[in-house]
Amino acid sequence: MKKKGSEKKRHVVAWLNKAEWDQVRDYLYSMDSSLQRFALERISAWKARCANSFPVAVDCTADLVRCQVRDRSGQLTGDDLTLMYGTALVRFVNLITERWSSAETSWP
Description:
Helix content: 55-70%
Number of strands: 0
Shape: globular
Order of helices and strands: HHHH
GO molecular function, one term: endonuclease activity
Largest sheet: none
Pfam families: Las1
Radius of gyration: 17 Å
Strand content: under 5%
Low-confidence stretches: none
Protein name: LAS1 like ribosome biogenesis factor
């Protein structure tokens, strides 16, 4: 008979396996725009699978990379580009400060 504490907890994720996760992470951080676009497409598919339980950090990172890809491609200019970068950065900073403040309040 197994004890409850020794059982592994299963966590459902959107990616197929660790290899897919590693590939998307590597492509996302590469300097090749086509690889980054592929990674962004995979992240969009993951997000569709998970909906409300998708990791916010992955989503925020994808937003920042999406800004870079569009910036390099020349798709957006001026105010649109500024707004896109601003939104992605504010969202990222809010995530960081939310995690920091919740960790700070959890101290005994």
